[in-house]
Design brief:
The chain is an alpha+beta fold. Helices cover 45% and strands 22% of the residues. The chain has one domain (6-95): Gyrase A, domain 2 (2-Layer Sandwich), CATH 3.30.1360.20.
């Protein structure tokens, strides 16, 4: 899988307005109502990531989840990261009503 060009990355980010390219990774922070909601989000995302064989670098502190996506084999951001970010947004959208 090849790295996204700057143009393609900018275009992808228009569809992911809360995400940013930071240090060669797609980056986003989420805030949930509480730890249970944050952990529910992470559980749902983990199942999607596993099915894609593409796993996020992430952390959780109480109600916050920080997500960084990059394709390690490619050395940066690829279409696979954009696809996973979109799926993550769909999960978050269901929980952050």
């Amino acid at each position: 899988m090849s790295l996204l060009s700057d143009t393609d990355l900018k275009a992808a980010l228009t569809g992911l307005p809360e995400w940013a390219a930071v240090d060669g990774k797609l980056h986003r922070e989420y805030r949930f109502a509480d730890f249970v909601q944050a952990f529910s989000f992470m559980t749902a995302v983990a199942l999607i990531a596993e099915s894609m064989e593409h796993h996020p670098d992430w952390s959780n502190v109480w109600n916050r989840v920080t997500v960084d996506l990059s394709t390690h084999d490619a050395g940066g951001i690829t279409a696979k990261d954009v696809i996973l970010a979109s799926k993550i947004e769909a999960v978050a959208g269901k929980l952050l009503l």
